[in-house]
Specification:
Elements: H1 2-33, H2 37-49, H3 53-59, H4 74-78, E1 85-89, E2 100-109, E3 112-122, E4 133-135, E5 141-147, E6 152-155, E7 158-161, E8 163-168, E9 175-184, E10 187-193, E11 201-203, E12 207-210, E13 235-238, E14 241-243, H5 245-262, E15 282-289, E16 294-296, E17 302-305, E18 308-315, E19 321-337, E20 346-354
Parallel strand pairs: 5-13
Antiparallel strand pairs: 1-2, 2-3, 3-4, 5-9, 6-7, 6-10, 8-9, 10-12, 11-14, 15-18, 16-17, 17-19, 18-19, 19-20
Amino acid sequence: PRARRQLKVGVGALVLVLVLVVAAVVAVNVLNSRRTPEKEVATYLGLIADGHAQAANEMVDPGVASSKGVLLTDEALSAATSRITSINVEDADVDRGDDTVRITATFRLDGEKLEHTFSLRREDRDYGLLDNWTIEDSLVDKVKLSSTAFDSLTIGGQDVSLDKIDSVGTIDTKEAHYETEQYVYPGLYDIAAGSSRSKYLSPDKTSLRVESSDSSSNRSSGNSSDRSSDSSSDQTVTVEGEPTQDLKDLVLNKVKQETTDCTTVPTNTDSECPPAVQSTHLSKMEVSTEATDVTIDSPPTGFTSSKIVVTTTGTSSTGAVTPRPERSSFTFSGDIEWTEGQEEPTVTVQRAMNSY
């Protein structure tokens, strides 16, 4: 009887050990089923779809300098008018000994189907049993913003500064040029004028569309501090300014002031005034028709006024005596100069041109 009791205890202990081993194996398998490469990709894409940019950054480091990651924030991604939806991650055939795997995921952006292939690397297993996978390439795209009108833009509700680049054009017609590079998660983002020029200029483009190009092999891993070498997915967006009514009013008021100056002694002899009024022997000068509108160039660095008519009496600048009133028609043109960081531009009337 004693031997039988010992045998029963021994068998019971062995059965218990076997049950615990089986339970442990099952538990490990269950846990590893939640730690697959597919789950890792699905979790990452889910964060982006829900507007959680900061959590996505922590999960997969975009490897972007802070100055180029202004739009990699919850505020910017949440403000996107459209984010990725309908996420589907393909099943991967992964052997236990595989250290790397590539997985293709599909998703939609604004109704369009897109896909991206991710590279993942197996890390050391927790406790030697639990799988760990790391996504090696983030889903951010580089966007180059360019403008000759704006030194800052508001994208996704965030103010993005543009750096001043060397002037372009001829010596006589140099124009300021501004650029920046930013990295952005896929989505549709509103574009608005930066705070410094929003009163006088509106952007000619009102939305930015960022897609994920399927070129993960060309993307750097999250260990890089600057991804400026990436070029396969570059997108250049040029945003120019269109004059607002406030700018037209500002220029028109300057033209009207110049018209007054050119029909008033002694400023009527200034070089930008029409020849018909540049005389010190005129007995009378009056404006018959004042400018009612201005045409602003694109980009908004110059302007031309509508027709102005001035009536003069007396001796003209050429010495001709005109006892009867003489009518002269002309237009004013000039420059609009934008100073970095300054809201209101400097408007200068440069010349008068005869108008027939």
